[in-house]
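Marked as duplicate of an earlier ticket. Keeping the data here for the record.
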Amino acid sequence: MSEFVRHPPQPNVPPARRARSRTYRVWAHVLLWTPIALTVTGVVLGLGMFAAADADPAHTSSALGYLGLVVWGGLAILSPVLLGAFVAGLVMLIRARG
């Protein structure tokens, strides 16, 4: 005959949250805010160049308009990278806080 020892049931205790280092939290903020800053800067810079090219009555600054298009094209090409960095930073920040 084998005797089974009954143990009391385990309480429902949530697992201890993992502590994140300061470097992890800093990188989370860097990855979150860098794409935002680059996007806002690119949009404002492009609009400023378009406005400067449009305001010139002699049409001697048309290169600024083309440069504004290059800036916006760069934003369009880099948008997957910027979005990926933003999402990664957001996930890291949620993990660091939660």
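See parent ticket for discussion. Residues 46 and 69 are 7 Å apart (CA to CA).
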